Amino acid sequence: MLRTVLDADCLVLPDRLLTPGKISVDDRGRISEVLPSADLDLEITNPRRFLAPGLVDLQVNGFGGIDLLDTDREGFDAMGKALLGRGVTGYLPTLISSPTAHLLERLETISPWCEETADTATPLGIHLEGPFLSPDARGTHRAVDLIPPDPVLLDEFLQAGAGKIRIVTLAPELPGAMELIETLSVKGILVSRGHSRATYDCALQATELGATLITHFGNAMVPIHQREPGLPGAGLADPRLSLGLIPDLVHLHAGILRMAWQAKGRNGLMLVSDAVTAAGLADGDYSFGGRHIHVEDGVCRDEEGQLAGASLDLFEGLNRFLDATEISPCAGFQVASANPARHLGLAGERGSLQAGARADLLQMVKNPEGRLVLERVYLAGRPVHQA
C-alpha cells in the first residue's frame, strides 16, 4: 500500500537528473517507485523545486552548542534535531583524542544512542579520530592525549564501543599502526589516515592492509612535494582511496576542491563538515573538548591558533563545493550522500533516490543566485522539518 507520493520539478537520482519526476513511498517509509511525471507545471523554471537524498556526514564532533565530548542524551538528541534541520539525515558522531578514561566513558555512553530515531538525524555509528595520531601533525588534538598505537587499548575502545565504531582515524607511520590497520580491517571497521606525516610509500603500504580513507584531506598532513608526494599525493593518485573533504573554503582552497574533483571523480570523494560545538551558531567563544575555541568570520581556532574543526554545516558546504567545481547537483549529492553511505555498507539503503531505499529526502528550491535552499526534510517519507 502506498503511503504518499512526492513530486518535484527535478529528482536528483544517482546517475541523472529526472525532470520532472515523482517518488512513491510505501507504508514502511521506503521508496517504492521513481517515475517521470507529466503532471507538473513545466512553466516553473526559477526557482525550480528539487528532491534529493538526505546528507550523510561522517565527521561530526558537535553542533549547535553541543559538544560530543561532554553531553548527555538530551543534548545528543538536540544535536540530532539541529543536524536534521540542516539536511543531514545520517551521521557519525565523532570523538577526537582525549584522556583514555574519558574516551572509554564517551564510547560506552554514546554507543547505545546510535540507533534509528523518528525525529532526529540517525547516528549511524561512531568515528574515533585518535588517539593514535602523530604528535607532529596533531592540529587541535592535544599532545598529552595522543598515544602510540596499542592493540590492547584498541581492543578496549572496541569493547566500549559495543560494535558501533565504524571508522578509526590513525597515523599509519607510527610504530605498531600497521598491526592496528590489519586488525580493524579484519573486523570490517573502516580505517582512515589522518593527522599524519606519512610518506607516499607508507600511505600505499597502509592501503594494501585495508586503509581506504583519508580524513580531512590536505589538513594535518605534509603537503605534496615534487619528490615526495606524501599522504595527499597518494590520496590523489591511488584509485583505491577516498578523500574526505571539508568544503568550507577555509580548510581547502576552491582550487584544491577542483583539483580533487578532477583527480578522483564522483566515486572517490566524500564531503564532511568536521562540525564542532560552534557549528550553526554566530561568531564568538566556545568550548570544545575542554579547549577554548574562538570563531571569527566563521573560522574556528583554538588557543594555539590551530584550526579547530568547522562552524559550517554540510548543506552549506555542499553549496560551496558546487560553486567551486561547477558540477551538477547529481554529482554533488553523490559525494555528500551516496558515497558516505556506500562506505558504511548502506548503498541502496541510504543516500540515494532509488527503489528500496529509505525515503530520507530533502525538498529544495534553487534561488535566483543558483544556490540550493532547503525547504523541507523527510524521514522515512514523513515531513519532520520545515524551514
How would you characterize the overall build of this protein?
- The protein has 387 residues and is of the alpha/beta class.
- The chain has two domains: 2-52 and 352-386, Urease, subunit C, domain 1 (Roll); 55-343, TIM Barrel (Alpha-Beta Barrel).
- Helices cover 26% and strands 28% of the residues.
- The protein is built from nine helices and 23 strands.
- The protein has helices spanning 73-84, 100-110, 151-161, 177-186, 200-208, 230-237, 254-264, 314-325, 329-343, and strands at residues 2-8, 10-12, 17-18, 21-26, 31-36, 49-53, 55-60, 62-63, 66-67, 88-96, 122-123, 126-129, 165-170, 190-193, 211-214, 242-245, 269-271, 284-288, 291-296, 299-301, 361-366, 372-379, 382-386.
- Strands 7, 10, 11, 12, 13, 14, 15, 16 and 17 form a nine-stranded parallel sheet that branches.
- Strand 4 (21-26) and strand 5 (31-36) form a beta hairpin.
- Helix 2 packs parallel to helix 3, helix 5 packs across helix 6 (230-237) and helix 8 crosses helix 9 (329-343).
- The protein starts with a strand and ends with a strand.
- The mean pLDDT is 94.
